[in-house]
Amino acid sequence: MSKANYQDVQKKYKKKSRLSEIWRQFRKNKAAVFGLVVLLIIILAACSADLFWDYQKDACDLNIPERLQKPSAEHILGTDEMGRDILCRLVYGARVSLRVGICAATFALLVGGTLGCIGGYYGGKVDNLIMRVTDVLLSIPGLLLAIAIMSAFKTTEFFLALALGISYISKFTRIVRSSILSVRDEEYIVAARAIGAKDSTIILRHILLNCMAPILVQYALAIGTRILSVSTLSYIGMGIQAPTPDWGNMLSGARTYIRGNSYLVMGPGMALLLTICSFNLIGDGLRDALDPKLKK
Amino acid sequence: MSMNMEDNRDVLLEVKNLKKYFKVPNGYLHAVDDVSFTLERGKTLGIVGESGCGKSTTGRAILRLIEPTAGEVIFEGRDITTLNKSQMRDMRKDMQIIFQDPFSSLDPRQTVSQAIEEPLKINGIIKDKNERLERVMELMKTVGLAERLVNTYPHELDGGRRQRIGIARALAMNPKFIVCDEPVSALDVSIQAQILNLMKEIQEDLGLTYMFITHDLSVINHFADDIGVMYLGRMIEKAPTETLFENPMHPYTNALLSAIPVPSIHNRKERILLKGEVGSPVNPKPMCRFATRCPYATEQCFQEEPELIEVEKDHFVACHMCK
Amino acid sequence: MQEKDYMLKIEDLSVQYITEDEIVYAVNGINLNIEKGKTHGLVGETGAGKTTTALSILNLVPDPPGKIITGSISLDGEDIISVDDQGNSYPAMSERQMEHIRGNKVAMIFQDPMTALNPVFTVGDQIAEAIQLHEHVDKKKAMEKAREVLEIVGIPGSRADDYPHQFSGGMKQRVVISMALACNPGLLIADEPTTALDVTIQAQVLDLMKDLRKKYDMALLMITHDLGIIAEMCDEVSIMYAGRIVEHGNLEDIFDHTRHPYTQGLFNSLPNIQDRKSKLKPIRGLMPDPSNLPLGCSFCPRCDYATEKCKTEPPQKIWLSDTHYVECHLYDDGSTESKL
């Protein structure tokens, strides 16, 4: 062959894009696509909230004359005990929930993932130490740990995310460690060492890329459970504080009026259900789509 | 360069008393136990043995993919067991390995070109993207991979083609020495022959030195200049290929040779059937490791471990009966 | 030819694996007969359709995606797969009857002895269970018989109380063989029974199988890629390529009067231990994709003797003698001499 030109060859035998391939597989799973659509609608609503409402006026300030109105054309989901539009609060609440949920899950992924990588790849004493620490963390119920942290610090979004993240670190450490262990002894890892690859190259390029699937799936599920925990903490008053709208404190506020006004809990309840379901469905879809051996 | 002045041989690799023990719950597993040999430049040494005899461990310990427990590996006059991590990485340019299983030795997420260019990239040998691709194309041509496969993934290819990728990858850095760890045993017969011929051609063209590990004596007799037979971590016989096939001395080598099913319905020879099973390599007693299965075993064999001694020129045997 | 006493008759069997993306033509119209007490070798490379053929005999082709398209199979005179008036094949017995046939009339041993045994039961329990499924005996009797069959394959009966992990690979394969033998099947299908074993252990296992076959007068279908094993074990051989039997004959026909270019190619790619100077002559190219077979002869793209006709027309079976047939256009002119 004469002079090979990078562009020419690349153009001629085009590499199938991995993303498009994953998307093709993902699309086959109808439930996962449904989850993705629901999630996108929620995100879109959360982003465009300011176009329809004024945050301070509609979502936070009291409006006693209009309190406890049943759903109507003006207030699609009705108003709450303070007279605020429920749909408006739901949408602003989505912002908080998603923000805190994603931050907490990401924090747990980064810290837990790094620990899991180190433990899984190097093994021995380091691994032992890391695993014992995660054992201790695991022995404390996640929510209790979060409550403990929240009572020690201020109840701000930052600390909420931190607390919920910390309580999930051990899960990620375990998942990342076990997926690394399953890949670490594959022959292509030895092969990479044989050509002189450094440890960092091996971990990042060969090991992590090949255990992306379980980690991403866990990440999607983690966001779901973190959002649920945000609501739980807010519900018992340890999370997002009124008047900032959050699905949890909306439920909490509604509980006194639930007998006569059951519509109050429908909104936040459904929002939680749909969000968490969609994250779970997306997680399932990713699991199938990310397996390279399933590709046809 | 180490030159053995006595018989003027150009020795590329010398392995001295190589040992690898693995710790297991009830003691130490002697995977490789005191193996020594020399390998001349441009020659092929075959290492033959059954599963668990330590042949693969020997190959990997030489490349320090597994850290040897004891012993020296002298490559071009340098004992590589004393090198530190980065010196060793440097050394790997000269010493490469081809793996047995082309299905697990390639990263499923790398395309053909990514797999072949990786050694060039991470060692900074060719920095320019275009030049690197040029080299990849050249290597693909050498190993007989069509240009159009450049961006395919391993799972889209068959075993023979995958093994060609493995070979191209090993050749990328112009090594002097390649450990071939059962490179054809996972392949179909018709593909096996293609790969064996390819490896032979490459060896002749590039003047490579091979250490060819296999369990199949019939594969190696076309390939090797010398053959070492291993049994439970020990080298029990070593001789030039022709000598080993014509005049095998160790009872185990004899049994191994006769056990190969011959694809012919004529001149069938009588088979030596071994009794019993391979013993355990964990904490072996100081006795001949083959004694429990050996039809000629005597009292001495159960009490004393035989040394590998030269019984005729270049023919080494570790057996009490062959002195 | 006179009608012989056949243990197994397969006629015009075709099996396809149908998925939403493609149809894999695994077996494409093969005939295979095994007389009682004889050993038949089925040789082929990965993807030739050997295992699918074996699974069809047991009616165990995974469905979906597997489907028996045409053909009939009968075992010791009983139809397992029959053909209806429209020419479609259907299973001739209920799953219950089939379960009775498996084990009693036909048993199969698989390639990997490591995965064929359940690690949580003792081997004695597992053999006894197989016996109890087919014979109405109590647990104690079954256990006694289990010890007996273990002795037959050369394992002390006292080891019946051991768990599979306490056995080595060769021993496990013996246990698997003893399980298959427990109910004296008339036909034993061995799918690469020694591929996972070391050569010296393989020699032991092959020797054992030869003895047992004689002792029980079983028919044996030996599936392998190793022509050496065939030479040693078999009476008749079928060479399979891309789902067709391309050459069939007795040992002498195949080994000394090789006619099909693929069979010849197989022999030439084998390193010959007795003649170490001979150069390896591999078959060029690759096995065709079974979901996209060539129009004519499936070996045509790799064949050195291929003509225009081979590209367009699938070859028919040509009988060269009473025992030997070949599917190759080279012999269309009726000559029986080798054209290779």
What does this structure look like?
The complex is a heterotrimer of chains A (296), B (323) and C (340). With 296 residues, chain A is mostly helical. Helices cover 73% and strands 0% of the residues of chain A. Chain A is globular and about 75 Å long. Chain A starts with 5 loop residues before the first helix and ends in a 7-residue tail after the last helix. Chain B has 323 residues and is α/β, with parallel strands linked by helices. Chain B is built from 10 helices and 13 strands. Chain B has helices at 55-62, 85-91, 112-122, 129-142, 159-171, 189-206, 217-220, 241-246, 251-259, 299-303; strands at residues 3-4, 9-24, 27-40, 44-48, 70-75, 78-79, 95-98, 177-181, 209-214, 226-231, 234-240, 309-312, 315-317. In chain B, the strands form 2 sheets. In chain B, strands 7-8-9-4-10-11-13-12 form an 8-stranded mixed beta sheet. Helices cover 31% and strands 25% of the residues of chain C. Chain C has an 8-stranded mixed beta sheet with strand order 7-8-9-3-10-11-13-12, sandwiched between helices. In chain C, strands 2-1-4-5-6 form a 5-stranded antiparallel beta sheet, with helices on one face. In chain C, helix 5 packs across helix 6 and helix 6 packs parallel to helix 7 (199-216). The longest helix of chain C has 18 residues, at 199-216. Chains in contact: A-B, B-C.
